Amino acid sequence: MKTLIVATVALLATGMNVSQAQESEREAILAVTEQAFAAVKSQNPDDWRAIQLAQGTTLSFRPHPSGEAGKLEMRMANSEEFVAGMKKTEQEYAEYWIGEPTVLIRGPIAVVWGEYEFTIDGKLSHCGVDAIDLVKLDGEWKIANIMWTAEKENCPSSAGG
């Protein structure tokens, strides 16, 4: 009986350590997504370079410029093309999660999926979904790929973050 109790306590302790480790990784991953939102705000290409793999990609879907209902425009770039296209403006950009994003982790890879809103000068510009693939290299989480939709309608909340 004593052996069973010791084994049970050991299993519970191991489970708690795994759970605590998973929560710690989740927090580190979400911190990287917050750095991405900070890079949106700063409009500084070096802020993006600090968190995204050079071999990474960005992919976005937005309403087609023709305005044709249901038609989308896809924009795809590698990391360097994306940051090279960043232009510093006088406008204040802000991006923030709406609700709690889903975070999936297994070993050195993770996925974050969640709804966001994007404001310009404090006014709602658009909303959508961010899907972010991350990898852990040398003990540090980096964005490998990021995809998002940019939607003008049916945003879940009012602007303000």
Largest sheet report: 6 strands, mixed
CATH topology: Nuclear Transport Factor 2, Chain: A
CATH class: Alpha Beta
What sort of overall outline do the alpha carbons produce when their principal axes are compared? globular
Secondary structure: helix percent: 25-40%
Helix-and-strand structural type: alpha+beta
Please give the CATH architecture: Roll
| Extended strand count | 6
Q: Enumerate the spans where pLDDT stays under 50 for 5 or more consecutive residues.
A: 6-14
Taking all Cα atoms into account, the compactness measure Rg is 19 Å
Number of domains: 1
H-E order = HHEEHEEEE
Overall pLDDT score: 87
> Widest sheet: strand order?
2-1-6-5-4-3
Distance between the termini: 55 Å
Strand content: 35-45%
Number of separate helices: 3
Describe this entry's structure for a reader.
With 161 residues, this protein is an alpha+beta fold. The chain has a single domain (2-149), classed as Nuclear Transport Factor 2, Chain: A (Roll), CATH 3.10.450.50. It is 32% helix and 43% strand. It has helices at residues 2-42, 45-49, 79-84; strands spanning 52-63, 72-78, 93-106, 109-120, 123-137, 140-149. A six-stranded mixed β-sheet has the order 2-1-6-5-4-3. The longest helix has 41 residues, at 2-42. The chain is globular. The protein starts with a helix and ends in a 12-residue tail after the last strand.
Relevant terms:
alpha+beta, 161 residues, 32% helix, 3 helices, Nuclear Transport Factor 2, Chain: A
Quick description:
This protein is of the alpha+beta class.
